[in-house]
Write a structure and sequence with these properties.
The protein is α/β, with parallel strands linked by helices. It folds into 2 domains: 109 residues, Aldehyde Oxidoreductase, domain 3 (Alpha-Beta Complex), CATH 3.90.1170; 148 residues, TIM Barrel (Alpha-Beta Barrel), CATH 3.20.20. The chain is 40% helix and 21% strand. It has 10 helices and 12 strands. The strands form 3 sheets. It has a 6-stranded parallel beta sheet. Strands 3-5-1-12 form a 4-stranded antiparallel beta sheet, with helices on one face. A two-stranded antiparallel ribbon has the order 2-4. The longest helix is centred in the middle third of the chain and has 32 residues. The radius of gyration is 23 Å and the shape is elongated. The two termini are 25 Å apart.
C-alpha cells in the first residue's frame, strides 16, 4: 500500500468524495484466487466488499467476482493493489488446476521458486488451484540435495539429518540414478526425489524399489525439467508427487478490471 500510494496520491485526490459502487470483473476464463487478500485491502481502506463467487471457482470472461461499496477516492486507491493480487494469484491457481487435471491421482506440488516476499500468497494460490504447497521454507523438512551429497555423501548426510532434525520432520533425498534411490530407501529416507530424470529412468527406479521390497517404505517425488506439457508422462512413471517450479515461475497473470457503477 505504501509502495502504490507514494508520498501523496496525485490522481485519486481530484475525485469528489462521494459514495459509489464498483465491481471487479474477470477478463477471461480462470480459477479465481486472491479474494481473501482483496478483503483485507478493502478493509484497510474502509470499503465494503462482497464476494460474488467462492474462492477457487472457475468463471468465464466477463463474470463479476467482487462488489465494492464506499468512498470513490478509496476505491481508486485500493484498485490496483487488489487487481495485482487477484491477477497474480488467479494465474497461479488457474495453471495449477490445469496441471492437477493432467496428473490424475498423482499429487501436484509447487517449489520454492517464488517471488521474494510474495511466497505465502503464491503458495496459497497453488492450494486454491488444488495443488500441494510443498515446503514453505527450509525449516519445513530436511531435504538432502546434490550439493549436500557432494560434500558429505549419502550415509553421512542421512546420519546428520536424523541426529539434528526433530522426529516430526521428514527427510527427503534427491537422487539422479535408480541405484541411489534404492540406497536412500535402505538407509531410511522418508521421501525420495527423482531429480532431472526422464520418465523412463524414473520408472526403472520405481520398479527397482518394488523388486527389492522398498516401495512401500518411501514416498516418491519427481522433479526437475517438468512442465505442464510433459507432466502427464511423469505422473504415469509410478511416483506419488510431481513438483514443478512452473506453477509459480511460468504462470501468467489473469486480466481483471474494476468498473465504477455510478
Amino acid at each position: 500500500m505504501k509502495e502504490d500510494l507514494g508520498e501523496m496520491d496525485a490522481s485519486s485526490s481530484i475525485v469528489p468524495e462521494i459514495n459509489v459502487k464498483a465491481s471487479i470483473l474477470a477478463g477471461e476464463e480462470c480459477i479465481v484466487s486472491g479474494l481473501d487478500e482483496a478483503d483485507e485491502i478493502l478493509k484497510y481502506f474502509r470499503l465494503e466488499g462482497g464476494r460474488l463467487v467462492p474462492e477457487g471457482s472457475r468463471v468465464v470472461a466477463g463474470s463479476k467476482v467482487f462488489s465494492i461499496r464506499g468512498r470513490a477516492r478509496s476505491i481508486l486507491q485500493a484498485e490496483r493493489l487488489v487487481l495485482n493480487f487477484m491477477g497474480r494469484m488467479s494465474g497461479i491457481s488457474t495453471l495449477t488446476s490445469s496441471c492437477v487435471e493432467r496428473a490424475g491421482k498423482v499429487r501436484v506440488a509447487s517449489t520454492r521458486k517464488t517471488t521474494p516476499g510474495f511466497r505465502f500468497f503464491e503458495k496459497r494460490a497453488v492450494m486454491v488451484g488444488g495443488g500441494d504447497p510443498h515446503r514453505f521454507d527450509l525449516s519445513s523438512s530436511v531435504m538432502i540435495k546434490d550439493n549436500h551429497l557432494k560434500m558429505m555423501g549419502l550415509e553421512e548426510a542421512l546420519r546428520a539429518a536424523r541426529a539434528s532434525a526433530s522426529f516430526t520432520k521428514k527427510i527427503e533425498v534427491e537422487v539422479e540414478r535408480a541405484e541411489d534411490a534404492l540406497k536412500a530407501a535402505s538407509l531410511g529416507a522418508d521421501i525420495i526425489m527423482f531429480d532431472n530424470m526422464s520418465p523412463g529412468d524414473i520408472r526403472e527406479g520405481v520398479e527397482l524399489l518394488i523388486r527389492e521390497g522398498m516401495r512401500g517404505r518411501v514416498l516418491l517425488e519427481a522433479s526437475g525439467g517438468i512442465t505442464p506439457e510433459n507432466l502427464s508422462e511423469y505422473a504415469a512413471a509410478g511416483v506419488d508427487v510431481v513438483s514443478l517450479g512452473a506453477l509459480t515461475r511460468s504462470a501468467r497473470w489473469i486480466d481483471f478490471s474494476l468498473e465504477m457503477e455510478i
